[in-house]
Structure of NAD(P)-dependent alcohol dehydrogenase:
Amino acid sequence: MITAKARAVDGPDKSFRAAEIKRRELDVHDVLIEIKYSGICHSDIHTAQGEWGPVQYPLVPGHEIAGIVTAVGAGVTKHKVGDRVGVGCMVDSCGECENCRKGEEQYCLKGNIPTYAGVDKYGEYTQGGYSTHIVVTEDFVVSIPDNIELDAAAPLLCAGITTYSPLNHWGAGPGKKVAVVGMGGLGHMAVKIAHAMGAEVTVLSQTLKKKEDGLQFGAVDYFATSEPETFEKLAGTFDLIINTVSAKIDISAYLSLLTLDGTLVNVGAPAEPLEVNAFSLIGHRRSFAGSMIGGIRETQEMLDFCGKHQIVPQIEVISADQIDEAYKRVLASDVKYRFVIDISTM
């Protein structure tokens, strides 16, 4: 077994503490990664606080992982020692079902194996990237382009793919009007990626305090959703809306902003149910959809796209001792726009 330093939490109301966790010895197709950076996702907070259901503690979160390959199993062909690599929200799947065969492992019919808070094929509880090392089967490790620094690459493994996938699937591009709801870790990536795809991007945020950033990231306009006239002015405007907010919002009000055959895609995952008025859908043949990360093939595609277009998240690098403070600041929307843990401080 491989011993890794980590930061773990022991309950919903507990602080993070230093810990040691065991990683399995390398199987024939496994890759050992020395983690350099791990992003902090809102999903980490939901899970650590038990908001999405029962959690087995102690828990080591983190599914935005960037690091260096330090060892490989005897049968590994996709990666070699010294490679710059990443691991996202899942570390395995059945590989045999219809969805896995299509390269949509995130929708594995038997359930993908999450990077943390899951149980792998060895029967072990998975622990995430707030740690110095991780062992992952080679098929779930992606390559990071040379022109993207590892600290900036980490959030791409969740925030990047979570927004790229629906933009790609629903055809964001030239001639399409795209709105992004929320300007946080996911939202600012959605703006950058949609702009690079050629879409006309508008940000819908509670206030205008991040307007300058939104326009700099590629939005052509920015509106405050706290102002009622926003929904009147923009009614029937957008072909696609990406909702990145991890809190309950008035979905029906946002559906009114779609044009004929427009789609609102939810990528935020609030703990509370979202209500939809049927008349907000049927009046203009609108769709309300959801999207969850992306498959491994699409994740690599996203990384290559970001490398080509020089798209990186805006980050704030912190030490391991600052995780609790970072969680509080995320909940207070006090981060521009993604915290990334420097694992050398572990």
User: Anything to note?
Assistant: The mean pLDDT is 96. The two ends are 19 Å apart (CA to CA).
